[in-house]
Design goal:
mainly alpha; Arc Repressor Mutant, subunit A; Tetracycline Repressor, domain 2; 2 domains; 10 helices
Length: about 230
């Protein structure tokens, strides 16, 4: 074997470890995954994981933080960018769905972590989550200031928009299991992400519309704001 091949095989990338850990954590949770599991899935020596990450918790936080930071950056750009508040709302929803496509491990990890009381999310990671929420709230305030959106509790509105997206991602994981493929169960039917985006956009606009104003329905989902 040439020196180059030896070097390549003995120097696993941080990305390989990240991907293997993300898949394992999303499937089995933090406590159900060991560093040995991650090393085996990434096909690396465990020592190389510690070269990139201090410990399992640091690796876990890195995965969650990376996804939230990316979404927060996109959400801030949408809130501060051009367009009406309803158009910004549409783009926020589209971007959140695209995040679940690019980072399929995120919904499961977030659901499990929040259900357990978020014991592993440090202040820095929580700050990225706050960035997503703050940007959503900024869009609501813009719409309220223009008389387009009615007054709503911002957190309840956020949960009403993001909740269906996260739950649908979890539903897709169930439907993807081989033993479920032949089951005739309504919750496991195929739903395109385009249909999901349009539905959530329409529902959000109806939820936020003032009593004397009907917000026009969303246009065809855009893909410009992927993460």
């Amino acid at each position: 074997m040439s020196p180059l091949k030896r070097k390549k095989s003995s120097m696993p990338t941080q990305e390989a470890v990240f991907a293997a850990a993300a898949g394992a954590f999303s499937a089995r949770g933090f406590d159900g995954v060991s560093m040995d599991d991650i090393a085996r899935n990434a096909r690396v020596n465990k020592a190389m994981i510690y070269y990139h990450f201090a410990d399992k918790l640091a690796l876990y936080r890195s995965i969650v933080s990376e996804g939230l930071q990316a979404m927060a950056g996109t959400a801030r750009a949408i809130a501060a960018g051009e367009g009406s508040p309803p158009e910004k709302l549409d783009r926020f929803i589209d971007s959140f769905v695209r995040m679940t496509e690019l980072r399929p491990w995120m919904p499961a990890m977030l659901l499990r972590e929040i259900a357990e009381g978020a014991p592993r999310l440090d202040p820095a990671t929580m700050n990225h989550m706050r960035g997503v929420i703050d940007s959503f709230v900024a869009i609501l305030r813009q719409g309220r200031a223009l008389g387009i959106f009615r007054a709503v509790h911002p957190i309840l509105a956020y949960e009403s928009v993001v909740g269906p997206i996260i739950i649908n991602a979890a539903r897709e994981r169930v439907a993807a299991q081989p033993e479920r493929q032949q089951q005739d169960f309504p919750m496991l039917v195929a739903i395109s992400h385009e249909d999901l985006i349009t539905h959530v956009q329409h529902t959000a606009r109806k939820m936020l519309a003032t009593d004397d104003a009907e917000i026009p329905g969303p246009q065809k989902a855009q893909k410009a704001h992927t993460l």
